[in-house]
Amino acid sequence: MTTSFKNRNLLAVIGDEDSITGLLLAGIGHINENQKKNFLVVDAKTQVSTIEAAFQDFTERKDIAILLINQHIAEKIRPTVDRYQQAFPALLEIPSKDHPYDPSKDSVLKRVQKLFGE
Questions:
Q1: Rounded distance, CA 81 to CA 46, Å?
Q2: Which residue in 6, 8, 48, 58 has its CB near the most CB atoms, within 10 A?
Q3: What are the extents of the domains in the chain?
Q4: Where is the signal peptide, in residue numbers (predicted)?
Q5: 81 near 107, Cβ under 8 Å?
Q6: Helix (H), strand (E), coil (C) string for the chain
Q7: pLDDT at residue 5 above 80?
């Protein structure tokens, strides 16, 4: 068995201000020695390219176990999210205060349904 998951002990988050604030208060915030954060606050002014770049960065890092992303933000980069197939970091789409969770848009759920032929 491969040990590629051994040093993965961080959560990363791409989300709106309320989601990020709540998760930072819960203690997930981390800034490494290179001043790289494990979160990106997305607002109306955030460029799609910035979201894409953060997604790429978080999914390529070897210290992140789970990447949380607000579903309404995942929608902005849906092709990239749907292409992501790796086991680590695990990708979870989460609701936000203003945008309820829609299972029909969740890339992981769609993949599971395809696997079971539903």
A1: 17
A2: 58
A3: 10-115
A4: none
A5: yes
A6: CCCCCCCCCEEEEEECHHHHHHHHHCCCCCECCCCCECEEECCCCCCHHHHHHHHHHHHHCCCEEEEEEEHHHHHHHHHHHHHCCCCCCEEEEECCCCCCCCHHHCHHHHHHHHHCCC
A7: no
Q: Token pair of 106, please?
A: 């969740």
Q: Give the tokens for residue 33.
A: 């020695």
Interatomic CA distance for residues 53 and 59, integer angstroms: 10
**pLDDT tens per residue across span 41-66:** 999 999 999 999 999 999 999 999 99
What pLDDT digit, counting tens, does each position of 84-104 carry? Answer: 989 899 999 999 988 888 888
If phi over 0 gives left and psi between -120 and 50 gives alpha, with beta otherwise, what is residue 14?
beta
**Looking at residue 1, what is its pLDDT?**
41
CATH fold label, 10-115: Rossmann fold (3.40.50)
Q: Phi first, then psi: what are they for 90, rounded to 5°?
A: -65, 140
